[in-house]
Amino acid sequence: MMRMVFFVPTDRPVGGVAKVLDYAVHAARQDLEVVFCCNDLYFENLSSALFKKPYFQKYGSNIRICDSATLDPKDTDVLFFTLPSSHERLSTLYAAAGCRNMPYIHLLQNVRLSNTAFDNGYSYRLLPKPLHRICITQEVVNSVAPFVDHPNDMELIPHGFDFEAFNCAPRQDDPIMINFNTFKGDLGREIVRPFNQDPRVKKVRVSSTGISWNKLQNNYKKSSLFLGTPLPEEGLYLPGLEAMAAGQLVITPDAFGNRFYCDFSENCALVPWGDIAAYQEQIEWAIENWTGAAFEMRKKAHSKASGLGLETECARFAESLKARYVDSGMALEYA
Q: Considering the entire predicted model, what is its pTM?
């Protein structure tokens, strides 16, 4: 009998780790035995904001959480990971316990996975190996497909997110309240500087590293214009999608991975990466067109986000497990 072990480097609430936790919850919802293993646990008593996510709180009570020191490897485990070098760590842990040839599932979340410098090159070297791979967007599929030697073992399950946690339909009379985060730098502070005392802007909200889940939701739901400040290249850039769910007008550069949900100039405003003046021009455009074109853009964004919830992702993953393991004669272990 098999159980599923979902492995991450840490319990720190970063995006890639949080998505693996979503998949652990998806598996738990199928009544499977699920272990969520963090190589290192930095927070005591599961106090990490990672485990405050509503989806985990609602469905994850039967998931066992441990660190690598207390993991009990079994040769019947199915191993799920996302950071490429986690494959090497898992291989070492399981080999030390006398376990070999376990099935792996690799969740691919970044368009840089085929870059020879990413994750010290382990990512590039891992791609030709015969693993079950799940890509979160078509952009990720396109970026890695030339390097994957076993394409039949790779599938696309479109990224889902907790739409209901952020859901707030836009209203035409919403006041202009600007929102940005500083998770990847302070660019937002420079962009918004001329608008801090602008009477046309009712409020400016900032979400910084360490913010609680509830405060983050509040900032998004109570704002109406989001400044997306991704890295030049992202696997997805979830904050922009969460802002769309909250009914905000999103101003963002093309970060490649955010093409998954961004229909530029239709449901969001496009700016060159790092161009402060361009952001400020788009804010002025939004103010001038707030009840007209800007409102239409917000409605389209909210509609797009509404179709990308966790329920669809959960259903697709359940189908994948059934097809690849149950239907092939491998028995999953049920809790």
A: 0.86
